[in-house]
Structures are given as C-alpha cells and as structure tokens.
Amino acid sequence: MGIAPEHREALAVSGAWRLGMPVANRFFATLGPLRTEGGDVIGSDGSPITIAYETYGTLNADGSNAILLLHALTGDAHAAGSTGPGQATPGWWDAFIGAGRVLDTDRFFIVCPNVLGGCQGSTGPSSLDGDGVAWGSRFPVLTIRDQVVAELGLADALGIASFHSVIGGSMGGMRALEWALLAPERVQRLVLLATGAAATAEQIAHCHVQIEAIRSDPLFRGGDYYDAEPGEGPWRGLGVARSMAQITYRARVELIERFGRSPQEGENPLSGGRFSVEGYLDYQAIKLNERFDANSYVLLSQAMNLHDVGRDRGGVLAALRSIEIPTTVVGFDSDRLYLPDEQQGLADEIPGCERMILLSSHFGHDAFLLEFSLMAPHLSRALL
C-alpha cells in the first residue's frame, strides 16, 4: 500500500479506544453475562460486558421519546458532535441530530450505542479480560442477534421500555431488523436504510476477502498483536480490507467522475506513481487504521456474513412477514452492495411497511451517510 514509511511507523497497533484514554462524550453501561448463538458466554469471568453509548436530547417522563440509532460496520456511538481528545472522528449523522433537525433534540432522546464487538468503548477483542489481557484471538464469534441482545440490555439499563423509533443503515439496519423480531413490543417505528434481511453470496464474498486480507498480514499474529510496537500492527491488512470495502461503498459513476484516470498530484503512474483513485484508497486505509481495530473489523464482518433474520424462524420470508411495526425502507439507486431490489424485497414482505423510498444518488452505498437533504423529508415523515 502507498503509506509512507514514516507514517506507518507511527501507526498504533490498534485504533481502538482503550481504558485510560479521554472519555469524550461516551457513557458506559455494564451488563451481565451473554450467551452467544454459538454457545460461548461473555461477561462471566469477572469482566462484565460494557456497552459505550452517546445520547442527545432529554428523555421525557414516560420514556416515550427515545430513538435508538444504530451505526454501520466502522461507525461508533459518536453520531453527532465534533472531534476532540478521545474522539477521532466527527459525528457520522451530525447533520441530522440537533435542535430543529430531523432527529430533533428538543423532541427526542437519541441513544447511539457502540456495537458489542466494536472498538470504541464497548466490549470487543481489544478490551481487557478478567486477567487484564486483551481478548484478541480468544474473543468469540458474534452474530447480529447477539449484538441486539446486548442492546436490549442497554435499553433495560437506561429504563427505556419501548423506543419511539429504531433506525439503522447497513449493518445498523440488520440490527434494526433483529430488534423488530426479538422485541417487537419495544419498537414503535422501524426505519431501514440500505440493508438486507440476510447476507447474500456476493456480500459474503466481499467480506470474506476483506477478512482474509487482514488474517494474511503477518503482523496480525493470529489476532494477538496488541503488545506490538507502533508500526508493527496489522496496518497493511486492515488497509487493504478498507480499500476493498471502499470500492463497494461508492458508485461506479462517482469514481469515474471524481477520479477518472488522473494521476495523484505530483506523481506519475508511468514511473511508479499512483493514480488519484489509488491515492484516495490509501488515504481511506490510513484513516481507518487510526480509528479502528483489525480484530473488530474481522469480528463484525463475520457477524454481517452470519446475518439471517430467518435463522430458527422458519426462513427469511416467514420472519419478515411477522413484522407488523410501521416501517419505512430507504434505498439508493446506485448502491451496488445492498441493491435496490433488496430494499424492495423488504418493503414487499414486511406487512407493516408503510413506504419504500428509492432515492437517486451518485454516492452508492455511502449515500445513507451523505445524502442528508435527500433523506431528510422522508425520515421526518417516518418519525411522525
């Protein structure tokens, strides 16, 4: 990868938030043991489960104004606000959250948790176990359903019996669907953006090669790299995985219009330099290494591959047809990762679906993180 030696030498072995770092806007909930779908137990060895979360607005007296906002693969609990000590990225839905905005903090109490298995404060592979050692390779496989069980525990800890709305895009949409199936009585409205009911063969293939890119990095050390020196972590594998993913997140037309065949500024591809699109991918690789953890990337990608709302429920169609919660489905015409027909399939099979919105965007799958003006009127309507 085109990461300069002096830069990669400075890269921490993990971009995870660790104990002792500035807390920023995080809150933390402590939960009891959780038995995973695979039969493993987390949180029973003297190291209880921690879920990091952020909130925006004020919970009203009867708890009826709470919204659960669920992030995608490399997102975290920081949905709104700026960067600062302990918080490397700005809020991923900042344009939507605040007084008078779509997620109006004068009206709603928004809760955004960092997913179980993540790396920004919630228990995951970079967390310390009961002996004070990072979990690393010993952390068990998780499913989307396991993660939602943990989020149900968070809701209990916060005293929220039912959410006004549960909103999620991409991996967050998978969790939103599981919320509607595991605890329908606790979801009053459902908003699904650029997501699917079960991982397709193509989606599994995309995740598989990203996982293998990380595992093939000799500095990954089977997942036990946390004691390595700066620059000696699996930066290359995580960077390649991010580059692979970034290609699927953006649309072909955007890549053509934005980069074409132009060279990276100051470089000549004929003499070993990069094209500008290569420079873009290298930049994305660096930024992810600075704020994410390779083990969490593997774990969460595996969870996405295991996603199947029909497992033990009589199949996908039976599961979807049991959802009577008022639902809004939003897709994007240029999304080549979660195709528009997947969104239409959700809308067609969920009896409670009130509207299916297909928006036109050049941003592909990432449109749910970028097309605020396009989405705003439809999300406002969904929250009425």
- Number of DSSP strand runs: 12
Helical content (DSSP H or I, runs of 4+): 25-40%
SS-derived structural category: alpha/beta
The CATH architecture comes to: 3-Layer(aba) Sandwich
In terms of quaternary structure, the protein is: single chain
**What portion of residues belong to β-strands?**
5-15%
> Strand-and-helix sequence, N→C?
HEEEEEEEEHEHEHHHHHHEHEHH
Task: Write the CATH fold name.
Answer: Rossmann fold
The named CATH superfamily: Alpha/Beta hydrolase fold, catalytic domain
Number of structurally distinct domains: 1
Main beta-sheet strand count, sense and barrel state: 8 strands, mixed
Total count of helical runs of at least 4 residues: 12
* CATH C-level: Alpha Beta
User: Cα-atom Rg, whole angstroms?
Assistant: 20 Å
Question: What is the typical, i.e. mean, pLDDT?
Answer: 96
* Strands side by side in the biggest sheet: 1-4-8-5-9-10-11-12
- Using the alpha-carbon principal axes, give the shape: globular
Poorly predicted runs of 5 or more residues: none
Q: What is the straight-line distance between the termini?
A: 48 Å
